[in-house]
Specification:
heterodimer; A: Glutaredoxin; 2 domains; 7 helices; B: Glutaredoxin; 5-stranded mixed β-sheet; 21 helices
């Protein structure tokens, strides 16, 4: 689907938007992911051409960062903070509960493509841990009922 | 009536938007005219969402407020001063707040972070005005004299970095702000960027003028979308208000800046790795020398400072180096915004002069654990910081005092654990985290972290414990001495401190104090 001419045009436009800035690669990758939900593989040689880099250099940057995806995530992404501050107040237990209820491990997407569960290493809400992010909404002081409510929200 | 509600991510996570929305609805229903100002957070998160009402005697706080309380708060006349069970009295008299020395965070939670005028009305940009009066060389000297040291964790004197860049001739120099606040237990950078972004912009502008740099980048982690939005909005306002761009503040100087967003790599909090990332490369650490001050971003002389270092600068310039230096202890001058996190009763930000003891911070200020169980360990300084047992709670909060006890203050985060913590598991996590986040450039970090997980597993399983503890100690020494940056170099701190202070969790009866060597 991504090799349709219109998508290639979008990719080219995103590249052109940043190409003349110093250090354009990260903003390009971010915008591609924003647009497509992941970074299409066909964008890699296009970026390399435009920025006068080797494909390996572009691929190297793309794969270094945890955020950039090679394939789309589920429709909804639930991020659970797994860092020390959240561990101190039962974060691991909540993560295990979410994994059990969704039937997937952190980093995986449910078979129906609806939900991706991800571990995140610190949302900066450590004052009110445990913390989570569903879509772009933050949640703090998570406990089992609150987590269950989030999981229910995912079903709907 | 004017009321203030925080729009800080921490407050939003606790429901501040829902409170603000309901307040509007209920006020309309009662025919009450209400102006809601969205501010940053005061940092007392156990009281969030908090509503502050402007009254002649000051701002009166109510919290933590739930949506169900709003109708009652309005109809009971509580917002006009009547007593209510959620009333906290004047916010600045709450002991947690009143005990602080708020220099960097003076306006956080007070002003509207989207309003340049509000910042200026509260004496914002007086630091820049003075910097313009005294000139670049005297500005660098002022920062040097203040004793300000890098608040990211390394504690390197900020004035020396600035001086080095100022003395290095180049047609282009840069100011880079490290806002890749990845340490668990820290949120001060986030709070400043969301609550008082103009303070950071002013600090960077002063740095630019002082060192001859005309452009700045704030590198913010992607996990902080609210901070990114707040900084971008503030930069735009500053530009429109003539405080960024050509002729900054009517002077002959040029300084402009932009936000760059990270992509989930913890190691990009390391300064050279951060520079690589802005340049569009893998976030691999650079070997030093050359120092970033000589060859930094795009090979040009670069000041790279933490958010809190740069946000301390406006005060230092406005009030003078001595006013800042007068606070603190030994070689740790000024204040540190300390962050209380994890299993703590009063979680939040506490800015205070260096020198307060760890025990006072955890027990008196933090109120012990939220679970009500005894405090067993606290990790200070993020995932690379040491675990301290109660026996070391007399340690004063100070760069050197923590180093003397095989720890570090890092970015000022304190994560509290109660007696249910398994310290062997925590030390295993430290290696695991290092393995996941290692940039891979140097062997001790890349390989050592994975071998570390395996060795800890063997110790936990009771497999030749004494020999494996020796292997672990040796591995940690190799990582400490042989790693290129603090990720590999400091991962031994949580590992060895856990082993030294909590050997029973590893199935070892006798404490091995020499393991900390």
């Amino acid at each position: 689907m991504i090799d349709e001419p219109r998508d290639r045009e979008d990719i080219a436009q995103i590249i052109a938007r940043h190409a003349s800035r110093p250090g354009p690669l990260m903003p390009i990758l971010h915008d591609l992911q924003q647009q497509f939900g992941y970074v299409p593989e066909s964008a890699i040689p296009m970026i390399a051409d435009a920025l006068n880099l080797s494909r390996a250099e572009v691929w190297g940057t793309f794969t270094f960062y945890h955020d950039f995806r090679e394939a789309p995530a589920g429709k909804r992404v639930l991020k659970l903070c797994r860092s020390e501050a959240c561990q101190a107040v039962g974060g691991d237990r909540l993560a295990a509960r979410a994994e059990r209820k969704l039937g997937i491990a952190c980093g995986e997407t449910t078979g129906d493509g609806r939900t991706t569960l991800e571990a995140v290493y610190c949302l900066g809400l450590c004052h009110s841990a445990p913390a989570a992010m569903l879509g772009d909404k933050l949640h703090a002081l998570l406990d089992e009922p609150k987590l269950d409510a989030l999981l229910e929200e995912l079903e709907n | 009536m004017r009321v203030f509600i925080s729009r800080d991510a921490g407050s939003l996570a606790l429901g501040a938007d829902e409170i603000a929305d309901r307040l509007v609805i209920e006020a309309e229903r009662k025919g009450l005219s209400l102006e809601i100002v969205r501010t940053g957070s005061r940092g007392m998160y156990w009281l969030e969402p908090m509503i502050e009402v402007e009254r002649p005697e000051g701002r009166i706080g109510y919290g933590p407020v739930s949506v169900h309380d709003i109708a009652e708060l309005i109809s009971g006349g509580a917002l006009e001063g009547a007593n209510h069970r959620l009333c906290l009295g004047p916010v600045e008299d709450i002991p947690f707040f009143a005990q602080q020395t708020r220099l960097t965070f003076a306006l956080c939670g007070v002003i509207d972070p989207r309003s340049l005028e509000d910042y200026q009305r509260h004496d914002g940009y007086t630091g820049l005005t003075r910097a313009l009066e005294i000139g670049p060389a005297a500005t660098v000297e002022e920062v040097f004299q203040s004793g300000l040291r890098g608040r990211g964790g390394a504690g390197f004197p900020t004035g020396i970095k600035w001086r080095t860049v100022a003395e290095t001739a180049a047609e282009q120099k840069y100011i880079v702000c490290n806002a890749d606040e990845g340490d668990s237990g820290t949120f001060a950078d986030r709070m400043i960027m969301e609550g008082d972004p103009f303070c950071l912009i002013e600090g960077m502008t002063i740095a630019g003028i002082a060192t001859g740099a005309t452009y700045g980048y704030v590198y913010i982690r992607s996990e902080y979308p609210h901070a990114v939005a707040a900084m971008e909005a503030a930069i735009e306002k500053a530009r429109r208000g003539g405080m960024l761009g050509r002729n900054v503040g009517g002077s002959q100087f040029t300084f402009d800046m932009e936000v760059r967003v990270g992509a989930g790599a913890y190691v990009c909090g390391e300064e050279t790795s951060l520079l690589e990332s802005i340049e569009g490369k893998r976030g691999e650490v650079r070997a030093k020398p050359p120092l970033p001050a000589h060859q930094g971003l795009f090979g040009k002389p670069t000041v790279i400072n933490n958010v809190l270092s740069l946000a301390a600068v406006p005060f230092i310039l406005a009030k003078g180096a001595a006013a800042y230096r007068d606070f603190g202890l030994g070689r740790s001058r000024g204040t540190m915004p300390i962050q209380l996190a994890g299993n703590v009763r009063y979680g939040g930000l506490f800015e205070t002069a260096f020198g307060i003891t760890l025990g006072d911070l955890v027990d008196k200020i933090g109120g012990g654990t939220r679970s009500g169980r005894p405090v067993r360990a606290v990790q200070v300084g993020g995932p690379l910081g040491a675990y301290f047992p109660r026996e070391l709670f007399d340690t004063p909060f100070d760069y050197e005092a923590f180093a003397a006890r095989d720890g570090l203050i890092g970015h000022g985060g304190i994560v509290v654990f109660d007696d249910t913590v398994d310290m062997a598991k925590q030390s295993r996590f430290a290696f695991q985290f290092c393995a996941a986040e290692s940039c891979g450039k140097c062997t001790p970090c890349r390989i050592g972290s994975s071998r570390g997980v395996e060795v800890v597993d063997k110790i936990i399983a009771g497999n030749r414990v004494r020999e494996n503890v020796d292997v672990l100690t040796d591995l940690c020494n190799t990582m400490k001495l042989g790693s290129l940056c603090a990720l590999g170099g400091f991962t031994p701190y949580p590992v060895l401190s856990a082993l030294t202070h909590f050997p029973e969790d590893f199935g070892i009866a006798q404490p091995r104090t020499e393991a900390a060597e």
